[in-house]
Amino acid sequence: MKQADLVISKWILVFVISAVLCVVGAMGIGFTLPLLNNALTVLKGIPYLYWVLVLSGFMGLSYSFYRIYRLLILPLRANTLDVHDTLLRHQQSNGIRVVAIGGGTGLPSSLRAMKKNTTNITAIVTVADDGGSSGKLREELGVLPPGDLRNNIVALANDDSTLAKLFQYRFTTGSLSGHSFGNLFISVLSTVTENGLEGALIETGRILNIRGRVLPSTLEDVNLRADIQLPGKSRTIQILGESAIGDAGGKIHRLELVPSSAKAYHESVEAILEAELIVLGPGSLYTSILPNLLVSGIANALRATTAFIVYVCNIATQPGETDGYTVAEHVMAIEQHVGRGVFSAVLANDKTPPPVENVITDYVKPVPANHQILQRYEIFYRDLTDDKRPWRHDPTKLSIALMDIYSALQSS
Questions:
Q1: Integer Cα distance of 322 and 252 in angstroms
Q2: Are 295 and 255 in contact (CB under 8 A)?
Q3: Which of 43, 146, 160, 406 is the most buried (most CB within 10 A)?
Q4: How far is Cα 394 from Cα 386, in angstroms, rounded to an integer?
Q5: Would the CA dihedral through 75, 80, 83, 89 be positive or negative?
Q6: Residues 214-239, mean pLDDT to the nearest whole number
């Protein structure tokens, strides 16, 4: 029996028992009344047991009805979910407060992992994307890039939802070729809602009935600029734009946000400060993770929060960004750009499956023995690989690993 069934069954049983108590007490009072001579002897003549039964039963009926209403009727009035799913979500609303930070295709893995345990999830997403559909909409409509926001909203939705599939649909012909329906929807909604992108994200979340919320790291129009050393060259050049940085194919020496003064979205900062568990990544180090941390206010909030913060390192290196990187070099790159103290633990993969479908994966290697970061961070290794696409994180494995680490911390 599912946990949701047990909870509702318990309160239904309390309701039935309370009703029986009321009936027994009322019957006792009914049998006693005809034996009394006048109204003055009513209260004295009726045994206290009957009054206790009626009063206890009434209180039990009232409270159990309230609990059943809260668990079943109230959630169902707000949506049309399957009953079991509705009950489970209502219970998960009391789960741990989780913040996941990143973007691209990596962060959705964290969200799919954590939504198995709680609906108190806040995804904080980069808005520095300038390529593909997002880049076109950003240039033509003047909106913040919706692509990463859309991907993470869908990750928090029901995996079998038709609406979620619709939001991921990408047009392949005509003037809309290359655009996804979700990108267009969010962009248009942000221009017609009173609160712009903030309102659009709230409404989109409601429509898809997501388990949590998705926020931008900043509401300002930002870009990325990197100092890159191209192959065979001794000097570095500056490249502007997230997509151009990824396509350059060189070694990234320095990344910065333009403008560097871009302020963090206040709700994102509040979510970090109120969180119990914060997950950085997984995702592209230079184009998904660092763009969030470089926003003014985000790194300081991470240092100020009491939450347990874990950085989830990528399983595979990323061509053009992290070629040849070990886990240690990922961590050192973050320290180089935002300093130390933004996380206290690292979760990394330790399995290297054989090639799948002739795809050769360059797996991120473990932290070298005696490396300096071993003195500053707890390093946890787990098998995190997806069976079909081993270069990506398996949400179930990631969920188990994160909750095991968090539970161990809580019990220590």
A1: 8
A2: no
A3: 146
A4: 4
A5: negative
A6: 94
Q: C-alpha distances in angstroms, 116 versus 20, 314, 388? A: 39, 21, 21
- Could you give the percent of the chain with pLDDT greater than 90? 59
Looking from the CA of 111 toward its CB, the CA atoms found within 13 Å total 31
Range name among 53-62, 208-217, 261-270 with the lowest pLDDT average: 53-62
List 213's β-bridge partners, or say none.
122
What CATH architecture applies to the domain 95-411?
3-Layer(aba) Sandwich (3.40)
Q: What is the mean pLDDT of residues 395-399?
A: 94
**pLDDT for the residue 194:** 81
For residue 87, give both structure tokens. 């009950």
Instruction: Determine the residue type at 377.
Output: Y
Give the model confidence (pLDDT) of 120-143 as tens digits: 999 999 999 998 999 999 999 999
- 183 in Cβ contact with 153 (< 8 Å): no
Helices (H), 33-131: 42-45, 48-68, 74-78, 83-92, 107-114
Q: Return d(Cα 114, Cα 123) in angstroms, integer.
A: 11
For 38, phi then psi, to 5°, come to -155, 175
Three-class secondary structure of residue 411 per DSSP: helix
Q: Residue 11 is encoded by which pair of tokens?
A: 């309160």
Q: Where are the domains of the chain?
A: 3-91, 95-411
* H or E element at residue 20: helix 3-32
Rounded Cα distance between 71 and 83, Å, is: 10
For residues 56 and 61, give the distance between their C-alpha atoms in angstroms, rounded to a whole number. Answer: 9
Tokens representing residue 396 in the block: 């179930």
Rounded to whole angstroms, the maximal C-alpha distance in the chain is 111
